[in-house]
Amino acid sequence: MAHLLEVHDLVTRFYTENGVVHAVNGISYTLDEGGSLAIVGESGSGKSVGVLSLLRLIPTPPGRLEGGEVLYNGRDLLKISDSEMRSIRGREISMIFQDPMTSLNPVLTIGRQLTEGLRLHLGMNDAQAKQRAAEMLDLVGIPNAEDRLNDYPHQFSGGQRQRVMIAMALSTNPSILIADEPTTALDVTIQAQIVELVKQLQQKLGMAIIWITHDLGIVAGLVEKVAVMYAGFIVEMGPVRDVYYHHSHPYTLGLLDSLPKLDAVEKQRLAAIKGLPPDLLEEANHCPFSPRCPFVIDKCWQENPLLIPAGPNHQAACWRWEDVRQAERFIEVAA
């Protein structure tokens, strides 16, 4: 069966005064119809740049898509015309951005911003678009939806603004929803509500979802598959349960060990990944995690490993993935 979305060897560079930033370095993954994928990693790992690249939203200059293909229903999105891409972006592939306050126009009403895409992509008239916009606000849990179409973004709370962004993204019934850390600016209680809302809407509407986050704890019950990114590479990928319980890359182990454990019998200090993220101005000719890795061996400094099988549908880019799997605590090994 053909995949809904296939990303093959995607490469993105930024050409700056200081040099070439190697932001995305040949990442590949697939997404099936109605499926779900989380892309996880710390800030600067290439998560957002990767999805902005497949939507062709990278500013040029300084950014440049330098390789790969992105097949959506068999069509390469990197080769179609700008007008064809605009008809897909927002209509068939929608995106929720990190900060709703900067994503919403402060001088336009919520109704104006919600109906614009409906008129553009679905050809609705004003009355149809207004009715659909009110239905979408109601769907995402905004009370008095019809009246609130006349309100401006500053009249909504942070959580409500993010709900508006979700309503806007879903209003055209997209096949794929990309959520780029949509809970970052929200408090913990509202985060949980937004995560649960997206989960319910995915099940109800049957769309595929790509969830981008730095927090492995959020995606545990949200997605089927996880891709862990570091320094522009996917370093581990597999079913969410395998990545959690049979992690096979030291970076994944470090991320998991930095999460608080609610079931801990005795107090444990949270593990920290020592060192700093790599300088992306330097092209990686060795494993980019080597300077921070407690499992490092000479081979890690000589060659950057490709993703290799670590189980059914589970891959890791590590020469010592079997040893990593046996480790229970990153901090104990690092010490």
Total count of helical runs of at least 4 residues: 14
Largest β-sheet summary: 8 strands, mixed
Order of helices and strands: EEEHEEHEHHHHHEHEHEEHHHEEHH
Mean pLDDT across the residues is 87
Instruction: Classify the oligomer.
Output: single chain
> Which band does the percent of strand residues land in?
15-25%
Task: Estimate percent helicity.
Answer: 25-40%
Rg value: 21 Å
Amino-to-carboxy terminus distance: 47 Å
Number of strand segments: 12
Give the neighbour order of strands across the main sheet. Answer: 6-7-8-3-9-10-12-11
What low-confidence regions span 5 or more consecutive residues with pLDDT below 50?
Answer: 331-335
Broad structural category: alpha/beta
Task: Explain the overall architecture.
This protein is an alpha/beta fold and 335 residues long. It contains 14 helices and twelve strands. The strands form two sheets. An eight-stranded mixed sheet has the order 6-7-8-3-9-10-12-11, with helices on both faces. The protein has helices at residues 47-54, 82-88, 100-103, 110-122, 126-139, 145-148, 158-170, 188-205, 216-219, 240-245, 250-257, 298-302, 321-326, 330-334, and strands at 5-16, 19-31, 36-40, 63-72, 75-76, 93-96, 176-180, 208-213, 225-230, 233-239, 308-311, 314-316. It is 34% helix and 23% strand. Helix 4 crosses helix 5 (126-139), helix 5 (126-139) crosses helix 7 and helix 7 (158-170) packs parallel to helix 8.
